[in-house]
Amino acid sequence: MNQLLDATAPNAAVFPGNRHKARARRTRERLIDAMYLLVLEKDYREITIQDVLEKAGVARSTFYAHFRDKEDLLVAGYEWIGTPPTKLLEVSGQKQVVLDVSAWLFAATERHRSLTTSFFSNPSQNIILAHLENILIIQVREHYQKQGIYSEGLHGEVAVRCFVGALLGLWLWWVRHGYPCSAQEMTEAFDALMNNGVWPASTGRIVRPAKP
After folding, report:
1. Model pTM greater than 0.70?
2. What's the CA dihedral at 68, 74, 80, 85 to 10 degrees?
3. pLDDT tens over the chain, length 212 residues
4. 92's torsion region: left (phi>0), alpha (psi -120 to 50) or beta?
5. Domains and CATH numbers, the chain
6. Contact (CB, 8 A) for 70 and 47
7. What is the 8-class DSSP label of residue 1?
8. How far is CA 164 from the centre of its chain?
């Protein structure tokens, strides 16, 4: 767990506000852990709030102080593994800040392989996949907007959803085929093709089909 209190403040541990934040974070982590342990045991759709409460050892009122429902808890689990970092790359001769989302997704999946396999081998996989897709779309769109490469309207959404669709398609193939390559190999293969979501500059040449 990350250090919650400022080590430079000798009396930080006794401040009521710090104790409350630390306790709240521990409770959230217990609930997320409980949900993920339950997913290893049964179909997500069969898991009830009561199951989570019993697994985590917390009261119902405590659960609702942190989450609206079990789907909110599931989404919090994705956020718990962090957000994709950015890195500076030279793309088509220009330096650009790119979102390292492929490395983030493949590496996180490899670390939680058994959990991912359980998620995507039960009938609830479409619910979970929809949440993951939505998280990726938001992250990629926000990154494009920050870098000034997002066009409002159709073209912007096409760029975002094509990138996310390609990433999820390759990722699902990897998961459903039992992780035939390492996360690093998958990341390198995806990035080599997609150039981290920034397409190579067009040469302006029109390629016509050969005459029969």
Report:
1. no
2. -110
3. 333 333 344 454 556 667 878 888 889 888 988 887 887 788 778 889 999 999 999 999 999 999 998 888 877 776 656 678 887 776 667 777 878 889 989 998 888 787 777 777 766 677 778 888 888 898 899 988 888 888 888 888 998 999 999 999 999 999 889 899 999 999 988 888 876 444 444 444 433 334 44
4. left
5. 12-68 (1.10.10), 81-197 (no CATH)
6. yes
7. -
8. 11
Q: Are 30 and 56 in contact (CB under 8 A)?
A: yes
Query: Tokens 């989302």 label which residue?
Result: 101
Residue 21 per-residue DSSP state: H
DSSP for residue 162? H
First and final CA of the chain: distance in angstroms?
66
| DSSP letters for 48-91 | -HHHHHHHHT--HHHHHHH-SSHHHHHHHHHHHT----EEEEEE
Q: How many CB atoms lie within 10 A of CB 125?
A: 17
For residue 48, which amino acid is it?
Answer: T
Nearest to 81 by CA among 155, 127, 139: 139
Rounded Cα distance between 203 and 102, Å, is: 27
Instruction: Give one word for 83, left, alpha or beta, with left for phi > 0 and alpha for psi -120 to 50.
Output: beta
